Amino acid sequence: MINRVGRYLLWCVLAVPAVLMLTRLATGSALVMDLLHPSGEMAIRLMILAMLPGPLADAFRGNRVLRRWLAIRRNLGVAAFAYALVHLALYVVDMGSLPALLGELPLPGIWTGWLALGLMVPPAAISFDAAMRALGRRWKTVQRLVYPALLIALLHWALLERDWLPAIIHLAPLAIAWALRVGAGYRKVKLARSMP
Amino acid sequence: MIPMNRLLVLALVPVAPLLLSTAAHAHGDVRCDSGPVENWKPMGELKKKAWLEGWTVQKTQIEGDCYEVYARTEGGQNIEAFFHPVTLQKLVVYRRGKEIYRAPDFKPQ
Q: What residues of chain B have any CB closer than 8 angstroms to a CB in chain A?
């Protein structure tokens, strides 16, 4: 776990991009629509940062950096959700009216965004210690919703951008981490079998 | 035996660079083949063109070798439209990534 001062510092760092975005908005150097992309991108990147240490810690057991990273990953996940909410708030402000919002709902580029955010709600809602204790093993099962949430968020991005490259580039580090975990697991199985 | 999900992940590893290279070629740029910038019409005329469409312009910019307009239509739809910088012809219009208009003589790349 992380101590109080450490957590305070971490959240200050995590808030920096949001403060920069708000400053750009306040000084008029960016329109609300200009911040849609950066806020969504930040949500996805934090999500990936929260999802990386798990497989990496399995691949490199006992690594101290990875242990520290694991200790803060719940904060990273909650921050990802916070940026996704900022992203939604900016979208709602930019659209300006309920009929306009509903009018865009059937578009694949839009409903995928709503779905990705919806999938993030249960894991984010139980991201506190008491819920973790109360749910036991089921807590992890609920957290796994971030996998479909991430894939659908990347689909949302690719559809709006009309470009698959950013989505694939963002998926690459996770693919590598998963491959390393699988590789490490496979070595372990072989080692166990070679034992008399 | 290696579990099935592990096999799947292992199978995906060699496929990833392949996906990456195809995606690099097939991305969503709009190309106008508009030639040297000296021959381009001024942005002011582009805004007028968008205004004549009945749109409320939010932003105009140069995207690659095209003019791009972010606007809201009379019906309140959010759109992203590409214009040819020399002829100011409306080439293609997207609504949240979905193509809703393409000039008949403008071929997809």
A: 2, 6, 9-10, 12-13, 16, 19-20, 23-24, 26-29, 58-59, 70, 76-78, 94-98
Nearest to A185 among B6, B16, B19 (CB): B6
Using a CB–CB cutoff of 8 Å, tell me whether A155 touches chain B.
Answer: no
Within its chain, how far is the Cα of B89 from the centroid? 15
Per-residue model confidence as pLDDT tens digits over B26-74: 446 899 999 999 999 999 999 999 999 999 999 999 999 999 999 999 9
**Rounded Cα–Cα distance for residues B52 and B13 (Å):** 52
Token pair of A171 as six digits: 């998926």
- Sorted by where each starts, the structural domains of chain B and their CATH numbers stand as 29-102 (3.10.450)
Do the bridges between strand B78-83 and strand B90-95 make them parallel or antiparallel, or are there none, so unpaired? antiparallel
Q: Which of B89, B40, B95 is nearest to B72 (CA)?
A: B95
Write down the ipTM of this complex.
Answer: 0.83
pLDDT digits (tens, 9 = 90+) for A55-66: 999 999 889 999
